[in-house]
Amino acid sequence: MRASLRRLLVPIMVTGLLATAACGSDEQPGGNEKITLNVALFGDFGFKPLYEEYSKAHPNITIKERISDYAAHHQSLISHLATGSGAADIEAVEIGYLSSFTATPNRFHNLLDLGAGSLENQWLPWKWQQGLSTDKKTLIGLGTDVGGMAMCYRTDLFKAAGLPTARDEVSKLWPTWEEYVATGKKYKAAAPKSYFMEASGNMFRAMVEQAPTGVYDDADKLIVDSNESVKKAWDLTVDAIASDQSAKLAAWTPEWSAAFGKGTFATIVCPAWMTAYIETNAKDAAGKWDIAAVPGGAGSMGGSHLALPKQGKNAQAAYDLIKWLTAPEQQKKIFKATGNFPSTPSLYTDPDLTGFSKPFFNNAPLGKIFTASAQAVQPQHQGPKQGDVFNTIGAGLGRIEQGKQSADDAWKQVLSDVAKLG
Amino acid sequence: MRTWLYKADTQLSPYVYISPFFILFAVFGLFPLGYTAWVSLHDWSLLSDEHSFVGLGNYSELLADPYFWNALRNTLSILALSTIPQLILALILAHLVNRPLRAKTLWRLGMLLPNVTSVVAVVVIFSQLFGRDFGLINWLLESFGLGRIDWQAGVASSHVAIAAMITWRWTGYNALIFLAAMQAVPKELYESATLDGATAGQQLRKITIPSIRPTIIFVVIVSTIYGLQVFAEPQLFAGGGPNGIIGGPDRQFQTLTLYMYEHGFNRGFEFGYASATAWVMFGLIVLAAAVNYLITRRIRSSR
Fold this sequence. Notes:
The complex is a heterodimer. Chain A is an alpha/beta fold. Chain A has helices at residues 2-22, 48-57, 70-83, 95-102, 125-130, 155-160, 167-173, 177-190, 200-210, 228-242, 254-262, 272-281, 315-325, 328-338, 351-354, 366-375, 386-401, 407-421; strands spanning 35-42, 61-68, 90-94, 141-154, 195-197, 265-271, 289-292, 300-307, 341-342. Helix content of chain A is 47%, strand content 14%. In chain A, strands 1, 2, 3, 4, 5, 6, 7, 8 and 9 form a 9-stranded mixed beta sheet that branches. In chain A, helix 9 (200-210) packs across helix 17. The longest helix of chain A is centred in the N-terminal third of the chain and has 21 residues, at 2-22. The radius of gyration of chain A is 23 Å and the shape is globular. Chain A starts with a helix and ends with a helix. By secondary structure, chain B is mainly α. Chain B has a single domain, classed as MetI-like fold. Chain B is built from 14 helices and 2 strands, in the order H-E-E-H-H-H-H-H-H-H-H-H-H-H-H-H. Chain B has helices at 2-39, 57-63, 66-97, 104-116, 119-129, 136-143, 155-182, 187-195, 200-211, 213-228, 232-237, 243-246, 256-265, 271-302; strands spanning 42-44, 51-53. In chain B, strands 1-2 form a two-stranded antiparallel sheet. The longest helix of chain B is centred in the first third of the chain and has 38 residues, at 2-39. Chain B is flat and about 75 Å long. In chain B, 34% of the residues are buried. The A-B interface holds A 69-71, 75, 78-79, 81-82, 100, 103-104, 248, 250-256, 258-259, 262, 264, 384-385, 388, 391, 394-399, 401-402, 404-405, 421 and B 46-49, 124, 127-128, 131-134, 150, 152-153, 238-246, 248-250, 265-269. Chain B: Belongs to the binding-protein-dependent transport system permease family. Chain B: It comes from Catellatospora coxensis. Chain B: The chain crosses the membrane at residues 12-38, 76-97, 109-131, 151-170, 215-232, 271-295. Chain B: Residues 72-292 form the ABC transmembrane type-1 domain. Chain B: Pfam families: BPD_transp_1.
């Protein structure tokens, strides 16, 4: 009974909302219809306090959040899209998966039809572009955070190895990745028992993300075997492994999480979202971590969008919510609470953001560092199996780290494995 | 008319009574099995709406993939490393608690505890024990002057770690099944054996094992089927990153189910290919069960 009533009412509601949206009014239309919006995320996006704020202003909206881990979230999203039911009204999509959806956008509401077109200038141009379908006619997601990169380092380990500890001096150690690896060699000579980086895969990925083209060309063709920047990044990473700089830790394992606090390694490539991870996993190490510039200038690693699967019935209400959640004011609050860096450039001149620092990181000016990094990002085209390609190359580096293969054999196997991904 | 109804009642009712099982089996067992076979004949990706028919293409590609054979080898190796010690330990445990003991129920319940613990909890704890830098086992090895082991990196070491988790979870459960069978063995046999001066070990070998042979074979079959499908242990052992999909950078502990997961839920969501893997696994399990069945028959006829 209720369901059929809702089926009748929703189109009326939607038309009403559309009409008011077209008038540019933020007034609540009717407001009697109770709507429950499900939000599915991977990890904590820091939305919880915002829901309360939103529900206060929109008493008819109830928001339910479900959180799972990165892989499980995207896998269940894809299954739900394929089977046509079970997806939440609002789904977070990380950049590693986004390109597989923009290739087949028909399973998502076109946000341009819901009124997103006028908001384009709110985001970094490349962040907006990432949410567009291949034919540029459909927008499937509004950007949340960007993974502007920096380099997090342990001041105590740097001091013990006789390296400078002040962040400006540390940044000067490695304008390029070659100098970063050279610094690593110096570090190993002075402190042979500890490691310079947590694993080599992150460094490789950062270098490739900084290049003008990565593992795909603009026509979604895999170019791992022909792109010079990829091979250059590989060779430099192999050099770092050969000089025993890597602690060979697999990301997202208990050993990896524990190592942040125990000081097993001295540096880690640090996209903005990583700062919260370090803070929660290394509570005892407050003041020992600091943040310097990333070698090679800038670059983005990670970052997400919010999308509305077509099976969701309350498209307009869901759109209004994601429009609000991704608006600059909200992104600023999220950054301060979680470290996820805003994708809206109007904030990059906001002193409230640029002046933001955290005691945990020796009062490093997170706002200033990540603003500089995000502004300098050269957008790079991401292909449909972006994440799988990096995992395949990462496994190759892992084989070298574990002493299973020579660098040449590992590269050959990477090329044949990547070709099979095709 | 009435006799016809009566006849129908007596002859059809039993089928109606047992039908719920078969209907449920058809819906949740047969249909998915058949549908999976149908999907396995297609180039079927979850990401696209087109599913083109490729015949046995997925199967020939699968059998030509060295990573499939690697996964099969790993699965069999973990199966042997977990099942054999598990059954021997279970037999000994069951034999011990089958003897007059104080607080019998406590011991028997205790044996079941590892099995009722969630597999995720077991693997998380064991992964920490087997940790490279901060693991308890490496700490012990080091304090005895032996070197640390990077458990996940090696083929043998990772298999041993995973087998330890499986053994921990299933030994007590199997011991209880053995125990149930042992209690059906006539007490007089043990009494006269004791009078004749047989030791506990001799009683186990000469009386218990021959008497519970059918149960042993049942347990072997069930453990084999479980062992061929082991998934959560290697997946969680590797942590949340890509190693949980391919079982380490060199695929050193990728099992068959992980291989299926790699293709079905990653890299393009190739459900057709994953379904073909599922069917090949099904065939392997039927084969293993058939071999076990033949052995059972031989034992029966030799008696």
